[in-house]
Write a sequence for this structure.
């Protein structure tokens, strides 16, 4: 592309950003002062990402000018300097009067670090990326185990409120504080609210030998009746002998999904290992045909995902609300499970205000398709407080968006959070094989190296968790010497288009959205 055309087209994009400055200032009126510049940069980034920027990169690189690939944290300032430098190269320098505040490269990194330090810790040692570890039950009693976790790199202890009870959680808190005091190292406590996790009900089947089984055998082509009957499921219901399939009945823990689901909706069980489709709907149940199954049984309390269904589930359950006082008293941060919209964020903040917990750190767990598509709104609503972060909860998220696209979605979350100068937690299955069996797969080592793009990495529990912490610590130290974030091609983003089209009723010029 000729330099004249480059300068003309990029100036058009810059003009749109400038023309929307007044509207952007209106949008950030309720943002916490610490996040005001970051909120502006995020909205500018959303406008920028409605364009296809790929056609500019090579020409800009040939000219020795920034190719826009690393513009997430300082959109306006980066584009301003690119246009100015193009004019200087042309030999016809002309001034561009920016309409808004300019954030430079160093300012963007400074803001990201400030926000990370506020949420996590200022006591950064040999690496910037922190390590979070899920506490196993034995951490409530085993001081030596917790001390080893801290010694080898754990900085944040995660307590999952979806498992165990308050007595167990309280013992864990006391142990973490004891170890922190004895080692002289500040260990922050993070607690996950359980949220409206959809699961199969408990299953108890008496087999031909009189033994009780907690799973039902299934195969591709079988039918499952999902019932509002929440409780122990009776023996499988078998249809007429001449049918080529059998039917089993299973309850669900949240009966609202029976009302919300529609015929044709996809439904997944047990982290996507069993895939089905709704083929019939009745008042109190759904009939699902199994289209693919990578497991021979479906068990008790296994996760259920309905990625194409508009669910009416509350983001905060009554159990979550009951646990909030305990969280606010004992934790530094809480994980907001299954948040879907900006209004969900507002509901949580109202409950935290009731607990007088304005200083509580909040992590928005992105684990549904809705949460991903509404991420700009979630972040901007979250920015009304100044201690927030985002977790890429890849377990449920991969089932919701599809395994083949989870990597792409993961990157988009990283980009948006970098644009907002928001710290990110990289979670689910990090070094899982190593933590459980003591030997890592090659793929998970590569994944752990990629996690250095985030500000925190979460490890799950396992018998070899100390070894996993050591390995992750060393990987993060090595990666930090080589990179900070990364370069990307910047094709138009659907979530950017969705946000901009909803937020700005009239664009200042015809955009190049493809």
């Amino acid at each position: 592309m000729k330099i004249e055309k480059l300068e003309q087209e990029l100036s058009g994009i810059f003009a749109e950003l400038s023309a929307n400055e007044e509207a952007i200032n209106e949008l950030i009126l309720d943002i916490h002062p610490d996040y005001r510049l970051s909120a502006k940069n995020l909205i500018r980034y959303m406008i920028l990402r409605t364009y296809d920027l790929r056609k500019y990169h090579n020409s800009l690189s040939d000219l020795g000018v920034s190719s826009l690939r690393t513009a997430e944290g300082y959109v306006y300032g980066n584009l301003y300097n690119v246009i100015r430098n193009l004019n200087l190269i042309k030999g016809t320098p002309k001034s561009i009067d920016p309409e808004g505040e300019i954030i430079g490269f160093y300012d963007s990194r400074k803001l990201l670090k400030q926000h990370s330090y506020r949420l996590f810790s200022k006591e950064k040692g040999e690496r910037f990326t922190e390590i979070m570890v899920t506490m196993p039950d034995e951490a409530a009693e085993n001081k030596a185990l917790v001390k080893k976790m801290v010694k080898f790199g754990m900085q944040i202890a995660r307590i999952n409120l979806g498992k165990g009870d308050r007595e167990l959680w309280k013992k864990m808190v006391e142990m973490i504080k004891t170890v922190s005091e004895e080692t002289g190292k500040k260990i922050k406590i993070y607690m996950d609210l359980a949220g409206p996790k959809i699961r199969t009900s408990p299953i108890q089947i008496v087999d031909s030998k009189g033994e009780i089984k907690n799973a039902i055998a299934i195969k591709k082509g079988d039918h499952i009746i999902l019932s509002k009957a929440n409780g122990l499921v009776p023996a499988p219901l078998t249809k007429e002998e001449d049918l080529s399939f059998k039917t089993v009945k299973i309850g669900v823990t949240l009966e609202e999904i029976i009302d919300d689901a529609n015929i044709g909706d996809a439904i997944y069980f047990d982290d996507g290992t069993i895939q089905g489709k709704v083929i019939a709907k009745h008042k109190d149940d759904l009939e699902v045909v199994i289209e693919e199954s990578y497991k021979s049984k479906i068990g008790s309390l296994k996760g259920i995902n309905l990625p194409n269904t508009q669910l009416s589930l509350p983001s905060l359950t009554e159990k979550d609300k009951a646990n909030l006082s305990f969280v606010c008293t004992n934790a530094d941060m809480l994980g907001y499970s299954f948040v879907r919209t900006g209004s969900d964020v507002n509901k949580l903040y109202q409950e935290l205000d009731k607990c007088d917990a304005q200083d509580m750190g909040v992590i928005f767990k992105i684990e549904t398709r809705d949460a991903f598509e509404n991420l700009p709104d979630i972040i901007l609503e979250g920015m009304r407080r100044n201690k927030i972060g985002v977790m890429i909860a890849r377990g449920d998220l991969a089932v919701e968006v599809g395994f083949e696209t989870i990597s792409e979605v993961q990157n988009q979350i990283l980009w948006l959070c970098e644009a907002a100068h928001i710290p990110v937690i990289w979670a689910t299955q990090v070094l899982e094989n190593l933590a459980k069996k003591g030997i890592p797969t090659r793929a998970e080592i590569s994944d752990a190296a990629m996690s250095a793009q985030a500000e925190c990495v979460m490890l799950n529990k396992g018998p070899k968790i100390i070894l996993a912490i050591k390995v992750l610590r060393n990987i993060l130290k090595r990666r930090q010497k080589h990179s900070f974030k990364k370069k990307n091609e910047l094709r138009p983003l659907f979530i950017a288009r969705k946000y901009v089209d909803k937020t700005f009723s009239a664009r200042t010029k015809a955009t190049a959205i493809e």
